[in-house]
Amino acid sequence: MRDTSPQRPLVDVGLLAAITVLVVGQMYVVIPLFTSMGAEFGHAAADLVIASTAFGIPYAFAGLIAGPLADAWGAKKVIVLSLATTALTTFAVAFAQGYWTLAILRGLQGVTAGFLSAPSFAYIARDLDEDIRSFATTAIMAAAMSSAVIMQLFGQYVENVFGWHFAFAIVAPLIIVAMLATRRSLRGGDESSQPRIRDAIFALPVLLKRPRLICLYATAFTLLGGFVAVLAGVELYGPEDLRSNPAKLLLLRAAALPVMVAVPFIALRLSNVATTIRIIAGLGLAAIALILSAIGGAGFAALSIGLALCVAGVLIAAPAVVQSVGQAVPESSGAAISLYTFAIFIGASLGPQLSVLLTPFGITGLLWGVAAIFVGGAALGAWGSR
Predict the structure, then answer these.
(1) Helix, strand, coil percent values for the chain (each to nearest 5)
(2) What is the distance in angstroms between the CA of the first residue and the CA of the last residue of the chain?
(3) What burial class does residue 12 get, using C-beta atoms within 10 Å of its C-beta: 0-12 exposed, 13-18 middle, 19+ buried?
(4) What pLDDT sits at residue 1?
(5) Which of 50, 96, 153, 372 has the most Cβ atoms closer than 10 angstroms to its Cβ?
(6) C-beta of residue 319 within 8 angstroms of C-beta of residue 292
(7) Mind listing the pLDDT tens digit for each residue in 20-70?
(8) Of the candidates 140, 115, 288, 314, the residue with the CA atom closest to the CA atom of residue 224
(9) Which residues have C-beta within 8 Å of that of residue 30, sequence separation ≥ 6?
(10) Is the pLDDT score of 243 beyond 80?
(11) Alpha carbons 106 and 50: distance in angstroms, whole number
(12) Rounded Cα gap, residues 168 and 38, in angstroms
């Protein structure tokens, strides 16, 4: 019999958020390790960017399969499988002995980790009560965004004390503990209504024929893509006093953490607001925040406030996009949401390329450009969620 106590869903949401920080954070934990990895493998630190790319792209594509598997097997089973295999691949990365071995192992780690996000959103859409779904979705998105800061801090500290290998060796057993907690806590779902794997996978191309879903996926593409583009641009060609000061850069990234904690609770109040309004308001807030940062001269204070408000806007819009996607095709919500997570993480992967493309326009040009992208995402999302 299912546990319907009010504490149970909150435990599930907290568990999924913690798992998201650990697993999605593997995309970012290597960033402070580039120099020490390069020194060990005889490569320049810039060459170790492959350790990030090799993880991110397989992660996004694995999500395309994860969603249909969640439809066919149930979200809980896929999440447990992802955690069990990710613990193994994470531990293997700790023992990488060469540059290309590291790249291959990071690719495998990206594949196993990529089976987490879509089933997590599918679990929220199908197995949690409707009145908590907006809070849960916002919490997972906030965890994914905060992992970029939290896991970089973790990697930097562990590398300084123990060496880069331990940044992975310590996380692997934590993922095992998370897997055991997941098996015990999450609900199993209704297996009688689950389609065959073949039918679930074949649902993907059918979904891509729906114009409104395409618009929602385009909106999802802008969510993390714009945020990551701004962070990358600040590091590449932001104000000189900021780029040359690692402590200030860290404070800039961390400035949004309080917002990431607070907005999921605000989402509880917004859950009854129409999804179209939340998408427009959220991405509109993100766009206005970046414009004000550009007008304010893109200094430390202006960027800190602007990025915090930008994160708030993204976290308001994201659950509304997920909700619209799930409501559009409830019979194939796992497959539909897998395309959503694919769009999000491909956007995150291409964000740095966008910042490079806008280099000639400087940091203010980047802020205006990303603001325009958010406005476009709001328009597409409004049409797709009607």
Answers:
(1) 85, 0, 15
(2) 37
(3) buried
(4) 41
(5) 96
(6) no
(7) 999 999 988 887 888 889 899 998 877 877 888 789 889 988 988 888 888
(8) 314
(9) 37, 48, 51, 52, 55, 106, 155, 167
(10) no
(11) 9
(12) 16
Q: Give the Cα separation of 320 and 336 in Å (integer).
A: 14
CB 141 within 8 A of CB 318: yes
Between 137 and 82, where is the model more confident?
Answer: 82
> Are 142 and 46 spatial neighbours (Cβ–Cβ below 8 Å)?
no
Residue 208 carries which side chain, given as an amino acid letter?
L
pLDDT digits (tens, 9 = 90+) for 312-362: 999 899 888 988 887 777 666 677 888 888 888 888 778 877 888 888 999
Residue 268 to residue 190: CA distance in whole angstroms: 26
Nearest to 84 by CA among 195, 192, 206, 179: 179
Q: What are 119's two structure tokens?
A: 């089933």
Helix (H, G, I), strand (E, B) or coil at 225: helix
Report in angstroms the alpha-carbon separations of 254 from 149, 189, 248, 250, 303: 6, 37, 10, 6, 12
Q: Which residue has the tokens 């199908």?
A: 126
